């Protein structure tokens, strides 16, 4: 008896992942890069194809930075897409001074460091 190709041990296993069911353009790779300078922490997220109005940058409990997007495609051919990342903020940051900029598909969030002045009273 011949084994069907899908069940052959040397064929790819279709049961391990459902990614093959989705169009390749629907499963983007989103990268978030973190760098630091003496003045701030900088988070850069690659999120192309998203409108500025669909981006949310939030701070939770003064300890977590949350970057999220939610976009429902007008076309019925492509399903709903979203992006959500949560980062624990380093100690001593100025939460009120956080700024964000979205240019050419890259979101840059700048989290300034908070410096404690030490001196004599």
UniProtKB/TrEMBL annotation:
The keyword Phosphoprotein does not apply. The keyword Secreted does not apply. Residues 21-121 form the SHSP domain. Keywords: Stress response. It holds the Pfam family HSP20. Belongs to the small heat shock protein (HSP20) family. This is Class V heat shock protein.
